[in-house]
Amino acid sequence: MLIHQAVNRQARLTPDAVAVVDGATRLSYAALDALADAWAERLARAGVGPGALVPVLLPRSAALYVSLLAVLKCGAGYAALDPRWPDARVEGVLRQLDAPVLVSDARDTPGAGRVWHPPALDAGDAGDGTGPDRPAGAGATPRADSADGRAGGFTAYDGPGDTPAAVFFTSGTSGAPKGVVSPHAATTRLFAADGPLAFGPGTAMMQAAPAPWDAFSLELWGMLTTGGTCVTAAEDYLLPDTLRRLIDTHGVDTAWLTASLFNLFTEIDVECFAGLRRLFIGGERLSTAHVGRFLTRHPGIRLLNGYGPVESCVFATVHPITPEDCDLPHGVPLGGEVPGTRVHVLDAEGGACPAGAVGELCIAGTGLAVGYLGDAALTAARFPELALEGRQLRLYRTGDRGFRDAEGVLHFTGRTDRQVKIRGHRIEPEEIEAHAGALPGVAGCVAVPVPGELGTYDRLALFYTADGDAAGPPELVRRSLQHVLPPHAVPDIVQRVERLPVTANGKVDRSLLLAALTG
Known about the structure:
The chain folds into three domains: 3-132 and 162-204, Rossmann fold (3-Layer(aba) Sandwich), CATH 3.40.50.12780; 281-415, Roll (Luciferase, domain 3); 424-515, GMP Synthetase, Chain A, domain 3. Residues 123-152 have low confidence and may be disordered. The chain has helices at residues 3-13, 29-45, 62-73, 87-97, 184-188, 215-224, 240-250, 259-268, 288-297, 376-382, 429-437, 474-482, 510-515, and strands spanning 18-22, 25-28, 53-57, 77-81, 102-104, 115-116, 164-170, 178-183, 204-207, 229-232, 254-258, 278-282, 302-307, 317-320, 336-337, 341-346, 359-365, 371-372, 385-388, 391-394, 396-404, 410-415, 420-422, 425-427, 442-451, 457-466, 493-496. The longest helix has 17 residues, at 29-45. With 519 residues, the chain is α/β, with parallel strands linked by helices. A hairpin with a 5-residue loop joins strand 25 (442-451) and strand 26 (457-466).
């Protein structure tokens, strides 16, 4: 079933149930589905159809959710962009997508061609909402012009589950963000009735993840495809008070936090979780000290570790955390696979590792992305087909190392490359180095993750050498990077050095650089 079909099914089953809460705005399933039909009709007239990948540049809001659903109903996929991204990054992404239209509430967006402005949710139904001269009264109150009550008789796209649904842009080693093209089935397989993400009516989940993340799919589609309620956290930077308010005011009982945010919340206000039924955490290695503190204070809240790269959409595995997990040698396990997913532990030759042996974690199943946007070579390299279990399987090579224990539970032990997670964001140091190396006067540079006290990385440092004074001071280099990198990828520390030290085999000695860190 496609994402929008699952939402429509809920609209038919429980039309009056609350689908979306966004401040004072509350949308029932019937209203949400009808609004999306009306907007899809307008988008179709603007050129959006099957095969298109449509950028959507809107703040977290009910209008964003309706827009994404409308794009899917047209048979297109969406790429939800972050309004906080610098103009240069937005322009680069728009070039990659080459879309017929940009969905945005901004009047001026660099690099955009035709812009479709979503109507006000409470406005009258007039106009097509396209272009800077859209009438102020153009809106989206749905009409009931057809026999089935769907706006204007619009018929939503009905195609296969491998149709692209979303493009998630993540850090790329070349300096340009990688677009991961994810199909409908990658999302819908997560919420099967027999899996750990079977939410259903009565569930209310906080929507706080940035729209470009695949975790956004968990918070939005996890609710709207199963009959739950998506409750918007309006703040860009989530704080414990926000979580408390959403629990008390809107009955939020389910939430997702990165490991870093979970640690922070546990330190600042461990009581802020009271009222939740379940809490998903992950995105990087978990702190057993913080997990233990949470479990001691909230034994009745189900705490789950979710693991998975964006190439397998949200989660590949989920593990219900117990106090005993905090004492394991490799920390909290990754757990077992979600429905439609299988994780294989492979050795360097591509053979299956026996239980307990460490190898690369490779993922198969319906959660896999179609591939990388416009990069067939990288897609072939990271999504190979291998003969396993007597058949050819398409896999994603995660670059993560781990093992499966005798009980079948997966554990994480480290990485095979330089990719790191910092504050829940996937960081490719090569991307930062590519942009820094292109700045005037920068002769050489290296981005180095800074280890924290909990065995994770909590900051990113950039060391650079310069030709004379052309590059300017470190503060200027950092400001320059803010114009081309998303906020999470801008180095926390920028430091000029006379030379980049090397090891005996000629590689940059990152340990010496960290030892000399002054920031």
